[in-house]
Write a structure and sequence with these properties.
- The structure is a single chain.
- The longest helix is centred in the middle third of the chain and has 18 residues, at 190-207.
- The two termini are 25 Å apart.
- This protein is an alpha/beta fold and 329 residues long.
- The protein has an eight-stranded mixed β-sheet with strand order 6-7-8-3-9-10-12-11, with helices on both faces.
- Helix 3 (113-123) packs across helix 4 (130-143), helix 3 (113-123) packs parallel to helix 5 (160-172) and helix 4 packs across helix 5 (160-172).
- The protein is 34% helix and 22% strand.
Length: 329
């Protein structure tokens, strides 16, 4: 893919949170996102996976400027958004939106469905009359599989899956080109998850939207994603084509993650070797020196403690691992 169809380019992005206690105490930072680089292409779904606490949601919220980055650049359609303020930031939100994880907490219980979906249109003055706004709200409700008469009902009258559909309709209100999906199915029943995934895929096919899809469910990420990034303790460890990465993970952490994905066939599942990682996930307050995965990696060497390996290209697969580097020399 060429640079021309890159909608989002992240370069050496860092997001640190100051957790220092006391005025004269030594400065302490949680390194939620630590020197991450990747890109997303137009019309593509980029899946992001990793254990809880690895920095996936922090990365997504930094891209949406909910969190301010500590360092690095985020180029959206060629423009650095990390310094945007006021009207310029507002203009960015016309094109980029976020679907939150919890549909129960992300919708204002005091507002009707129509008011919730209409609010972004009013903030950005998208339409001149209320009739035009209402027409667009009804159109969006139909798009996400809800009925026009739902427009005057309140969030508490809907199920979790229906609430997430309302959230998606609100996200689409400004006709965005890029959406961060921050674990949009994790709070839903399994049967409903598939419906929401199918809905997101249909919307993407119809509108050409690009997604950053953050999730824990590795099999679901494979289903919806074109490419996948694997994060560990704030770092991007591997990036590659979804099918290729699942078929042949190159980083030891990716291999361990994918060995835990359930297989529907019992016989195949029995024959597959499960990789059990030793030790606890290190604290982002005090990460290990060098490669952050080295304290749990069965292939760690002295070199791994000396410095963080670069994310290098191996025939289209990006991997940050000294072992992989040595095997491909």
């Amino acid at each position: 893919m060429t640079e021309n169809n890159v909608i989002l380019k992240v370069e050496h992005l860092k997001t640190y949170f100051d957790v220092t206690k006391g005025l004269f105490a030594k400065k302490q930072y949680v390194k939620a996102v630590d020197d991450v680089s990747f890109e997303i292409h137009e019309g593509e779904t980029f899946g992001l996976v990793g254990e809880s606490g690895c920095g996936k949601s922090s990365l997504g919220r930094t891209l949406m400027r909910i969190y301010d980055p500590t360092d690095g650049t985020v180029l959206y359609k060629g423009k650095d958004i990390t310094k945007l303020k006021g009207e310029q930031l507002k203009e960015f939100y016309r094109s980029a939106q976020l679907i939150f994880q919890d549909p129960y907490a992300s919708l204002d219980p005091r507002m009707t469905v129509g008011e919730i979906i209409r609010e972004p249109m009013q903030i950005h003055k998208l339409y001149k009359t209320k009739e035009e706004e209402e027409e667009h709200v009804v159109e969006l409700l139909k798009t996400v599989g809800l009925k026009p008469d739902h427009i005057r009902r309140y969030p508490h009258e809907f199920s979790g899956g229906q609430r997430q559909r309302i959230s998606i309709a609100r996200t689409l209100a400004l006709n965005p080109e890029f959406i961060v999906c921050d674990e949009p199915i994790s709070a839903l029943d399994v049967s409903i998850q598939a419906q929401i995934i199918n809905l997101l895929e249909r919307i993407q096919n119809e509108r050409g939207i690009s997604y950053l899809f953050i999730a824990h469910d590795l099999s679901m990420v494979k289903h919806i994603s074109d490419r996948i990034g694997v994060m560990y303790l704030g770092h991007m460890m591997e990036v590659g084509d979804a099918d290729e990465l699942y078929r042949n993970p190159m980083h030891p952490y990716s291999q361990a993650l994918l060995s835990a994905v359930p297989i529907p066939d019992p016989e195949t599942g029995k024959s597959r070797e499960r990789i059990h990682l030793q030790g606890e996930l290190p604290s982002p307050l005090n990460p290990p020196s060098g490669c952050p995965f080295r304290t749990r990696c069965p292939f760690a060497s002295e070199r791994c403690a000396e410095g963080m390996p670069e994310l290098k290209d191996y025939n289209g697969r990006l991997v940050a691992c000294f072992k992989t580097e040595q095997e491909n020399q």
